[in-house]
Each structure stands twice: as C-alpha cells, then as structure tokens.
Specification:
Length: 343
C-alpha cells in the first residue's frame, strides 16, 4: 500500500469510503451485467477462520485448481462492480511483478491474486448490524442481504468465466451460522491451527500493524479488516476479550471465543468442516482429502509447506490447556469429516 500513487489513493477513497458512490456503481453493474451472468449453482467454497490460520494459502490452492472464480486485486477498488471496472481499467491484463504482501509472511501477490475483498459488500450494505466501536458482533443477514450476495457472486463468475466461487473472508465466522444453512450446497472450510502458535502469530501481526500509516488504517477499515493492528476490533462472541492485546493471553481468549462459536456451527451444519492446518501443510493426503471434499481434482499443492512455529511466549497455563483441549476435539472431528485416520 505504501507504493500506491496519489491517484490510486483517491480512487480507493472514492470507491470504498463513499457508500453512495459504491451503491450507485453496483446498481449500474447489476443493470448492465446481471442478466447475462451464470445462474447460481450454490456449489461454492468459503474459507474462513481467525486470521493467521492458513486461510489465505488454502484459498489460493483452491483457486489454483482453475475451477473457481474469485475477486482479485485487479478488482480493487470497485470490487462490487467487477465487470464495469474491468471494462474501463487495464488492471489485471498485465499481472505485474509479484511482491510480498504487507504481512511479511512470504506470500507473494500480483494483481491477479485472489484476496479477501467481498467483505466490502457486507460492510457497505449492512455494516451497522455488526460493526460497532468496541468490536464486531455475530451477523445475521436477512434473506434480501443473502440474495444480494448471491447476485454479487454471479457477477464475479460472469467476469471470471467460471461457475463456482471461492472466497476467503475471516469475517464470515461472524455470519457462518446464517450462511451455512442458507447455502446448503456450498462448502465452508475452517482451517484449525494449534492455538498457542495461532495466538502467537496474531500477537506478532498485531504489533507489526500498530504503526500503520493513515492510508493503511483507512484501507483496512474500508475492507472491514479489524483483526489486528491499529484498527483492531475483536470479534464479540461473548464478552469483549479482557486484558492487553500486546499479550498472548488476550489472543488465546479470542481464539477460545471464536472456536467455541465455530464448534456449535460445525456441529449443526454438515457443510462446515474443520481443516487441520499443520497436517494440511505437511501431508499431501490432507490436501487431496480437502479437494475431494469440495469436488475437484487437485494437482499437488504449490504453496502448502511445513510450518515451523516458534515457541510461544509465556502464557496463562489454564487458558492454554483449555484452548488445547478444544483444539484436539475439533481436530478429531475435522479429520473424521475429511476421511482421515487419527493423527
């Protein structure tokens, strides 16, 4: 984001910070392109979970199969009008040089890389229902909102020439209890990472983004990303996490709250599956099981690689034990759903 030109920044502010302009462009998009968009088969894949769970790499491997359309960086900043923007912009025709993303985690992107951008739809059209000054609450979009989201998916599929959609959106854990039963043909994949390593990674990213400049803070807010850093607002599955976000215990508490909620959702919805993050990264058979689960023939993964988590900093032992126990229970269910033998 630091290399965005003044024009880029102006366009982003116009397209993402102005609900009136975004809604007008989206209305034009629907009027011009929705009637020629493919019908919604419902057989899409939604990757979600707390940030730093491996959601991005899993989504990229799914997208690489060639069976799915998705929003990409080329669709920024008019992500709700992908066909209209493509007709007037040259973005994406030349993907440009790959560069490491701002997270400093080795993931390289270019303009054709898929990314978590459809949260803009929920924020602009229903943000008041779940985004508050103290955090983000569980979101229960109504039938009209979900129908509108299906229209956006169809528009993205028209632009990409595909019939199935893949999305990575961490905020979907706020609305998965509504989306999963409303979209029964879709698959919801929830990567599950060892909680101490996961909390340590969240803490590291929080510290990394605390010093973000004003444009980066606005950019993250426009995209609805409040996972960590200067714009952090926790997910409110219960009480606001207690303590200091500069400590690992804070992030362990958020992990517990989020995955307790996901535990309930997965148990009630057969199209929700926990995916073991560490095994996915190290064992090719896990990736093949995920591919079978979503109904694709997958070539060997290109980006999945064994992870070398650092030893976590000192933490509350009781909190750690509680998180590890929940992780083990969810991990067993995920492996069973994927037809994997016990680890």
């Amino acid at each position: 984001m630091s290399d965005y030109s003044a024009l880029d920044r102006l366009l982003h502010r116009m397209a993402l910070a102005s609900p009136v302009l975004a809604e007008m462009a989206h209305d034009i998009e629907k009027a011009r392109y929705l009637k020629t968009a493919p019908e919604d088969t419902g057989q899409h894949v939604f990757v979600t979970g707390l940030a730093r769970a491996g959601t991005t790499i899993l989504m990229r491997e799914i997208h690489r199969t060639g069976q799915f359309g998705s929003l990409t960086y080329a669709d920024m900043p008019f992500v709700l009008s992908p066909n209209l923007w493509a007709s007037i912009s040259r973005k994406g025709r030349d993907p440009g040089k790959k560069a490491e993303r701002a997270h400093g985690d080795g993931i390289e992107v270019d303009s054709n890389s898929p990314e978590a951008l459809d949260e803009v739809y929920w924020r602009l059209f229903d943000g008041a229902a779940y985004i508050g000054p103290d955090g983000l609450s569980p979101h229960r979009p109504d039938g009209d909102m979900i129908s509108g989201y299906r229209d956006l998916i169809r528009l993205i599929l028209r632009k990409t020439g595909k019939t199935r959609y893949v999305s990575k959106n961490n905020n979907n854990i706020l609305r998965i209890a509504t989306l999963a039963p409303a979209m029964p043909k879709a698959k919801f994949l929830v990567p599950l990472r060892q909680p101490l390593a996961h909390a340590a990674s969240l803490l590291s990213q929080h510290k990394r983004f605390l010093g973000a400049d004003d444009f980066t803070r606005n950019y993250m807010t426009w995209l609805g990303h409040h996972e960590f850093g200067a714009t952090h607002r926790p997910f409110l599955f219960g009480d606001r996490p207690q303590g200091d976000p500069s400590t690992i215990d804070y992030w362990l508490a958020e992990w517990l709250a989020a995955y307790r909620a996901l535990d309930t959702v997965e148990a009630a919805n057969p199209n929700v599956t926990f995916v073991p993050y560490e095994a996915l990264s190290a064992d090719p058979s896990v990736w093949q099981a995920v591919a079978e689960r979503i109904g694709v023939a997958a070539a060997p993964a290109e980006e999945l690689r064994p992870v070398a988590d650092k030893a976590p900093p000192p933490h509350d032992p009781a909190l750690g034990r509680e998180a590890v126990a929940l992780h083990e229970a969810l991990l067993a269910r995920g492996r069973a759903d994927l037809g994997l033998t016990a680890a």
